[in-house]
Amino acid sequence: KSSVSVEARSHLVGLQNKLAHLRKVISNCHILVFPSLLQVCNCAMLVVGVVLNSLALFVFCRTSTRSSASVVYTINLAVADLLVALSLPARIALYHSGGSCVACSYVHTFSYFVNMYCSILFLTSICVDRYLAVVHAASTLHRWRTTGAAKCVSAGVWFIAVVVTYSFQVKLHTSHLPTHFYLTVLEFLLPMLAVVGFTVRVACFLSSRRGLIPRHSRARRSRAVRLLAAVLLVFTICFTPFHLRQVLVYFQVRLAGGSGGQRGAGHVLAYHLTVSLSSLNSCLDPVVYCFVTDSFRRMWRTRRRTTGGRDSNVSSGVCLAFRFLSRNHHIISAECVFLSRKGWKLKA
Q: Which residues form the G-protein coupled receptors family 1 profile domain (predicted)?
């Protein structure tokens, strides 16, 4: 039993040293207010993230009558953000235990990296979808915007994120800094370059004469640019600091001759700040892609009108039925057709 405990402790040390994750040195920082402020921020992100993403999922799933590629990606993004928010209690418990809760460490690390890279890839997928919708609306590339293709892409994103994260999770006792560096390049730098490239391409297309044809109205043009700019903003604020720090740690270790050494409070402080910023996307994504864009507001208004006007529609249909009830057989048949459109199962 003691050997199992020693092995678990060694895995935890590997987790703390190689991922710079939740080390006890944070309690020895001269900035004594930082741990308490970090807990407050995590609790706030937990509440806001759960509420906003749950509301977004409710509205998209209950009011979206016709599915599309953008709706599929947005729903998956909301699910990933909701899971990020739900993983915050494990992080809070890990902070409170000073890094001694091994189970909390594994749960939080696995869920954090899976959902962070899912969020990155789904944001990139939304950007690519907008690029195809605006630039290649009439070309053969438009077929990639089907719901079937979007579901396949979403399943692939979840599978890759889970498999890659799990492969690192079971090998935390060994050094994987080079692998983490390549993972940073693969799962952040390439999507970031794709988002920048597609944003520039869409902006050039919409500013050209071809982009000013009648089917691209001013509202649609501004909405597309606003969406892509929001993606860039989320990437810059939430994900760039964390991955930039990962790259700096990699090169620092390389310059030190392959030995990471002991990291001081500054490194731990930088790590926790960048992790908190990357988790902040679970609160920003619903605001950016659901509450700011016109599609969410239109779907929310449709939901309210449908709920509020349901009784009046049914009562008007019943009134029409009694009005024509005493007439001949042909009128009764027309009456039954009308009521069946309202959802009544009547036979002529």
A: 52-289
